[in-house]
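Q: Sequence in, structure out?
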Amino acid sequence: MGVARSSNGVAGPFEKKGDSILHVGNEKSGCSGPGHCSVVSVDDKTWMLYHAHVGYGSPTIDTERELLMDEVVRTADGWMVMKDEPVPSEIKQVISDV
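A: Exactly. Output:
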């Protein structure tokens, strides 16, 4: 999954970040086909919600996708990146303690 940014909002033009910010890595990742994300901010954290097939070895065409989420942060130069590894996390994520 890639990311792009614009200093002119949705009107663009957009600058695409060279490296993807989320990928499956290899068969050890536990997920395949991540995509179609939304980004939300809650309290002082920013989260990316997306779907993926859970189970890398499963046939993805017939497998339902599940909703996943991971925290994202901005780098010093303003790019959004995954807070931890650039692969789907396999642990339960908590948005807020409330």
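The CA atoms of residues 7 and 45 lie 22 Å apart.
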